[in-house]
Every structure is written in structure tokens, then in C-alpha cells.
Amino acid sequence: MQQMATRQHWINTPQGRLFAQCWSPAERGGAPIVLLHDSLGCVALWRDFPERLAQASGRRVIAYDRLGFGRSDAHPGRLPPSFVEDEARGGFQALCEQLDLSRFVVLGHSVGGGMAVGCAAAHGSACAGLITESAQAFVEVDTLDGIRAAEREFAAPGQLERLRKYHGDKAEWVLRAWVDSWLSEAFSQWNLDRQLPLVRCPLLSLHGDRDEYGSLRHPERITALASGPAQRQVLPDCGHVPHREQPAAVLAAITAFLAQPLTV
């Protein structure tokens, strides 16, 4: 096992500071991998996955907390309906500029996968590869039903403490940002149809066949509409968080994808 160096960063944006962390193997090569978390996530909730990914791939791995999440500053208000595509020119671009990332691989989980698509589309040749994990490509009934069920669970006594552990006094905002954004009428027609044709880098779409927040129509749509070489992998007997439920399979799929010449 390679020796691993970790480093923390603070990224300045006009709206506030973002927290980021890097995992760097002693011997590394290839474009670094930037992780985009899910709707309730943050750097800490990736757990040991970034380090394991850095070890397996031999690449630097970078994760950051979006504004309003984890250790980053509080968000000043409600998320706009364009929040998924906005990230590419917002926190993600600030991260790339301040960490001098002229080339990268972007990997996003759940809504972070949609944001990753936007990043690949907006940053063109700088993106060496795109990996989506359990990403939503449009607003589906399954997704909304899953969100409503989760909202009911978080309404039970003590359940919000699960979020406060990672987001502190921002926990209520984090929950409402997820629920209210996805269930709003303004967001009901959202999809990735305009961004995906602009994705020309190699693409890997991972999805569990038991994902409670989206059917297999999502990876099918993602790979069908992207302009570059695209492949999808369905993970059997797997839910919405493959990197936690089946980490070995996810790492194997990602390292095989990154070994392709087009992603170097």
C-alpha cells in the first residue's frame, strides 16, 4: 500500500469559503479526480472512499464541501432551480482555479453526478474523464417518492441529529435544500438533456439495480445522450450508494475506466 499524504484547503468564493481535502499517493500520475457529493453529503461522508480511490488509481483525489454543506460556509439563501448546472461555474471553478487544476477527472454521486455532467460540459478539454454514480438525469417519480420517504424519516425525533453531526447548525438548511428544491414546481422539468451532448470526454455511468432514488432509465439516458465514448455498468443487488455498499466493485470499475488511453 502506497504512503498517502492528506492536505486541507480553503477555497474562496464571492459567497463564502469552501472546505476541500486532497489525498495524494506518493507515486501518482494522470489527471486528479475531483469528487462531487450528494444532496445531503460532504467530504466527511465520503468516509474512506477518497483514500481508497487514490490508492487504487494512483491519482490525487480531491473532495470539497459545496457552499452550505459540511465545513464550508453557510449558504445565503434558497437554492435556485439552476443549482445543478450552476456548480460548474461556481464552487467547482473556484476550486480548479485555486488548486491550479488545468486538467481533471470529475466523479459525482447522485445530484453530484448531474453537477459532474455540467462540469464536463462547461470545461470541455480540461475534463479528461467523467464518472457518474447513481446520478439523476431528469426528475422521475421514483426520485420524488424516495425524497418524500426520507423527509418523513427525518421528521422523527432525533433523526436530524444524523445531519447535524456533519453539517452542524446548517443541517436544517441542508435537508430543506434537498427536499424543497426537488419537490418544487420550478424544478419539475429539470433534466441534463442540454448538457450531455456537450460531454465529449470518456464517460462511465455506474448505477445500482436497486437504487431507491432512480431507475435504470438514468444511466441509459446519460450514456445515450453524451457525445463522447460512453459506457454504463449496472451493479446487481445494489442501492443508491454503491461506493459504500459495494466499494470493491466500484473501485474496480473506476480503475479499469481510468486505465483506458483516452483518459490519460
TrEMBL record:
<dbReference type="InterPro" id="IPR000073">
    <property type="entry name" value="AB_hydrolase_1"/>
</dbReference>
<dbReference type="InterPro" id="IPR050228">
    <property type="entry name" value="Carboxylesterase_BioH"/>
</dbReference>
<protein>
    <submittedName>
        <fullName>Pimeloyl-ACP methyl ester carboxylesterase</fullName>
    </submittedName>
</protein>
<dbReference type="InterPro" id="IPR029058">
    <property type="entry name" value="AB_hydrolase_fold"/>
</dbReference>
<dbReference type="Pfam" id="PF00561">
    <property type="entry name" value="Abhydrolase_1"/>
</dbReference>
<feature type="domain" description="AB hydrolase-1">
    <location>
        <begin position="32"/>
        <end position="243"/>
    </location>
</feature>
